[in-house]
Amino acid sequence: MTEHQRNWLGTPPRKSATFDDATLAEIRRAAATGIYDIRGGGSKRRMPNFDDLLLLGASMSRYPLEGYREKCGTEVVIGSRFAKKPIKLSIPITISGMSFGSLSANAKEALGRGASLAGTSTTTGDGGMTPEERGQSKYLVYQYLPSRYGMNPDDLRRADAIEIVIGQGAKPGGGGMLLGQKISDRVAQMRQLPKGIDQRSACRHPDWTGADDLEVKINELREITDWEKPIYLKIGASRPYFDVQLAVKSGADAIVLDGMQGGTAATQEVFIEHVGIPLLSAIRPAVQALQDLGMHRKVQLIVSGGIRNGGDVAKALALGADAVGIGTAALVALGDNDPRWEAEYNKLGTTAGCYDDWHEGKDPAGITTQTPELMERLDPVAAGRRLANYLKVLTLEAQTLARACGKNHLHNLEPEDLVALTMEAAAMARVPLAGTNWIPGSPGF
Amino acid sequence: MPNVDLAETSVRELNAALHKLGKDTNETLWSIANPAGEHSIAVGVDAPITVNIGGNVGYFCGGMNKYANIVIDGSAGQGVGENMMSGRIHVKGDASQSAGATGRGGLLLVEGNASARCGISMKGIDIVVKGDIGHLSAFMGQNGRLVVFGEAGEALGDSIYEAHIYVRGPVASLGADCIEKEMRDEHKAELGELLKAAGEIHKVDVSEFRRYGSARKLYNFNIDNAGAY
User: Fold this and answer.
1) Which branch of life, at top level (chain B) (predicted)?
2) C-beta atoms surrounding B84 within 10 Å
């Protein structure tokens, strides 16, 4: 279109849907720096999620429970398959693994405090177990990662459960890197590496490969801990049906399935946005795998990656999960990306709600940092209380929805309670499109 | 002296008995018969005892060991002495892959050969192998010392941090950021101490070894180094 035509028609210049503003900005950034973008958090793109599902609620054929009177159970037992001491949680919402190193010690302590107040578990990460977190966590899950930073038998025995990390939703198949600016003396000491250097986290375990080896590894960890601790396997959602079957075969007590909306301390943007599958699409294949093996509800399924509210919790459980995990939402509850720090976010070239350079260690909220003056901003007691409040709300919301569906326990929610708003969500969650009996991809259609 | 026959006693029973031992136990000498390649024998021991194992063992023997002296009168499967914290593990035969993986302390002595990934992610352990080692040994080695009397396979010390490597024989190739370094007097002394601990001090000349370690060029991410990964 010529300049004359544009002026005559009053037509604005047309932007490309393919080369939109964000895409153009990224091309310019890449051209200027020569390095891919690294950030924290999970996928930011719009994708099918729990908002695309609706609960049906009771009607003529279903009886609801009285919202403020009739019981709706929330407790869950994890690890009853083999462990002598399974974990008995009051609510089916756990705190996902996040490392000391990526998070401050105060943040880890706050997670422990909040989880304990709510009667649930928190989880270490790729940096070992801190006394603050152990001391404040009624139930602490100790991650067993490829890097084995800080791994030792004493902490294994101090843990309430062990989580062998195969992968995570933000980057299935990827390792990690904690950049040098976050490697304080304490972080370096715990990881047995020099201060200030980048600390790589391997993508594969150093002493086993494949499911057959993993079975032997799980048995070793059981032997070291005298078969007391539940052993979880954490997998990033990519091929959930096969991965869950292999996890069961390997002898796991519980499986943590992390969808691609799950956050990370730091990895490449291209990895976060282009690898793995959304949690919505991963739960039903995972549950199917458990059902095909006769292990549903025997090997517990904990799902994570984008859980935000009690609706998400109820829908995930209705699809067959035994519990959910939260990470990003828990950090927000602590104070991450809070508008009170807007002026400082602006100085970092961002705004509250968008800050994701967690790897740089400059977090104004004092959560994803090791800088003492920033860390001090987070009061672990107050932040723990906020997290406990948030967990309480999630639970009450999920109970409200379950009672409306006539369920006296959150685990009695079922796929039959759900419909989908979109064909994509219907196919992924294997529930009918709202107002129809059509489940795309199911036999008979 | 407790004698345990694994033809009659399960590994679980053995480990449970070992875990009950305190630091001041009088049961300091254990003899294990018929290991028959069982996995996870004597894992998580936390007492200053000696465990003599009369035969070949499977995966992870002596895993996470603290204080114990474990002698394997045979060969060891994958991950022998993995993540050991202290003590001593002596393999009289060969060791399979990932021997001493992520070990944080103590001494692992292998009379024969060790396979691939020996000392992978080592974090303070000392490993002495009197034969050869396989590829990718000391991969991402953080701390500790790896001594090899024979040859080393490909990609030795790939992405190594601060671990020290001494090899007497040829090295097939060095991994990313691993270089040969000058063998100064302090390194000869360090190697001598290791050989002494391994009972080899008067049998081997330290000057026959060459030293390898990190060039420290990949310690902080730099896009210009992308081709090295």
Assistant:
1) Bacteria
2) 30
Query: In this structure, is residue A339 part of a structural domain?
Result: yes
What is the tally of structural domains in chain B?
A: 1
Of A420, A334, A320, A326, nearest to A377 (Cα)?
Answer: A334
Interface check for A189 against chain B (CB to CB < 8 A): the answer is no
Position A339 confidence tier, pLDDT thresholds 50, 70, 90 = very high
Residue of A nearest to B102 (CA): A148
Number of domains making up chain A:
1
Give the range of the structural domain holding residue A93, as residue numbers without chain letter.
41-429
Residue B60 is part of which domain span? 3-228
* Cβ under 8 Å to B: A residues 119-178: 147-148, 151-153, 156, 177
Q: Is-contact A243 A235, C-beta < 8 A?
A: yes
**Chain B residues whose beta carbon lies within 8 Å of the beta carbon of residue A33:** 223
Is A350 contained in some domain?
yes
Tokens coding A101: 């190193």
> In this structure, what CATH number is given to the domain that contains residue A409?
3.20.20.70
Q: Which of B18, B23, B64 is the best residue to mutate to test the A interface, defined by the most A CB atoms within 10 Å of its own CB?
A: B64
B183 neighbors B210 (Cβ within 8 angstroms): yes
User: B34 — phi, psi (to 5°)?
Assistant: 55, 55
User: How is residue A85 written in tokens?
Assistant: 């001491």
Residue appearing with tokens 């517990």: A300
| Chain A residues with beta carbon closer than 8 angstroms to that of B135 | none
pLDDT for A127: 81
**B100-118 pLDDT, tens digit each:** 999 999 999 999 999 999 9
Query: Any idea what the CATH number is for the domain that residue B147 is in?
Result: 2.160.20.60
Q: pLDDT tens-digit profile of B175-219?
A: 999 999 999 999 999 999 999 998 888 888 999 999 999 999 888
- The verdict on a CB contact (< 8 Å) between A213 and B139 is no
Taking the Cβ of residue A226 and every Cβ of chain B, the question of whether any pair is shorter than 8 Å is answered with: yes
When the pLDDT of each residue in chain B is averaged and rounded to a whole number, the result is 95
User: Do residues B59 and B39 make contact, with C-beta atoms less than 8 angstroms apart?
Assistant: yes
